[in-house]
């Protein structure tokens, strides 16, 4: 035990246990300090002084009143209640009811599984099946990202795909015909080059996403119970691979099906073959790759910083002369253009040349004055 | 501080989906989270949104949680991370006042910086303006130490720094406060005499 008898008021104020007593009045600390004080009555004044220091330092850091807190809490409880699915009732049932319910759910699941298997003896839309189906037409490339960082892929139409860890993407060397089709397993962020005449399709497990030119993330891991689509800009139409209108969708040049808009998400519940659409919540955005929420609007921003943001968002390396470019500033409103397009626009402003090669971008410019 | 048993009961009802329990737990931690967040931004609505998101995130994942996440350090740390992500811009500014970690003066134990704090409690409004004039990270460390009463180890955990850097930062913050306090006092004295 520390020897507190020589402590000054400052030292008490800086002592963790003492602060805990004053601020929190925790049982252990209050027993200790009340006893200590009883044994050291001569320290009464010093202790009062130390307490006053701590209280002053706390008081000046109070920024919110009880009423405002109460209103904020009421709002939280309100939203939580809306989200509270019927689970509450279920758990309130007795143990017996739970068992019988569980048993019947199991039985129904088993039965429907058997029936379902019989009915759909054909392939389930997994990654490899989708690849097999689509890759008949042209030569496909498969990129597997086994690293722990993201990997940038540039497609033949200029579209960017930021492939996340443990994910793979199959895509044709060149897009031909009326559609652009790729197959994803895992998670990736897409920025699709605009071409209304050649709609872009992503096959991700049971889900198909169709776009004309936008940016979005798809999360479709084989071992997860859901497939999710998060839209950053533009519109994405989603439907399941079993959808009878799939054929029509492939020819149609407009977006139908379930439309997902910016800051919305569509979740496909795999066991139910059902879509749900909802607004994106902050924790979800946080869980997504940086690029999903990264703004590319720059106002008098140092080029060094701009390149930093791009490197970070796309997980690529940009090589350029830092001392030469240090004085350059950029004002540009970039959006969901693929990376190559963004670099092109930036280089036009900077009167610089660029080259994209093996996962890095080399920029050569004259600098700015 | 609530008795431990009450807390366990509250946590249990929370996990079973009782929104009132969520309200109680949120109420218990709201003030410290809010006051802490003001060290990073003055945007009160943004702070409230972030705190709401944090509690709703726990609510949405309540069934998967192994143990109670309603631990101040954990909540502070999560809120700090979320805020930083939202305030990407501000984060850059904050790194501006990333004071360089000076080597720690030998012979002084981190818990006993011999700095006179007595003057602080005499004039709260002056203290407040001095505090807000400190670099953001120094304000943060003062808050964690003197508002929430955390130990150096706990502060290190929340701020993602090592113990030594926290000590240095705290030391500088208190020195800063003190020297400014004297400046302010001297200025006041001079003005007062001349008037």
From TrEMBL, chain A:
Q: Keywords assigned by UniProt?
A: Membrane, Transmembrane, Transmembrane helix
From the UniProt record, which GO molecular function terms apply?
A: sigma factor antagonist activity
Q: Does the keyword Hydrolase apply?
A: no
Please give the organism: Arcicella rosea
Q: Which PANTHER family match?
A: PERIPLASMIC SIGNAL SENSOR AND SIGMA FACTOR ACTIVATOR FECR-RELATED, PROTEIN FECR
Q: Which residues form the FecR protein domain?
A: 148-236
Q: Where is the Protein FecR C-terminal domain?
A: 296-363
Q: Which Gene3D superfamilies match?
A: 2.60.120.1440, 3.55.50.30
What is this protein's record name? Answer: Ferric-dicitrate binding protein FerR (Iron transport regulator)
Query: A single Pfam family, by name?
Result: FecR_C
Which spans are transmembrane here?
95-116
From TrEMBL, chain B:
Cross-referenced InterPro entries: RNA_pol_sigma-70-like, RNA_pol_sigma-70_dom, RNA_pol_sigma70_r2, RNA_pol_sigma70_r4_t2, RNA_pol_sigma_r2, RNA_pol_sigma_r3/r4-like, WH-like_DNA-bd_sf
Give residue ranges for domain RNA polymerase sigma factor 70 region 4 type: 127-174
> What are the protein's GO molecular function terms?
DNA binding; sigma factor activity
Q: Where are the transmembrane segments?
A: none
Q: What GO terms in the biological process aspect are recorded for it? A: DNA-templated transcription initiation
Please name one Pfam family that this protein belongs to. Sigma70_r4_2
| Keywords associated with the record | Sigma factor, Transcription, Transcription regulation
Q: Which residues form the RNA polymerase sigma-70 region domain?
A: 25-92
Protein family according to the UniProt entry: Belongs to the sigma-70 factor family. ECF subfamily.
User: What is the official name of this protein in its record?
Assistant: RNA polymerase sigma-70 factor (ECF subfamily)
* Native species: Arcicella rosea
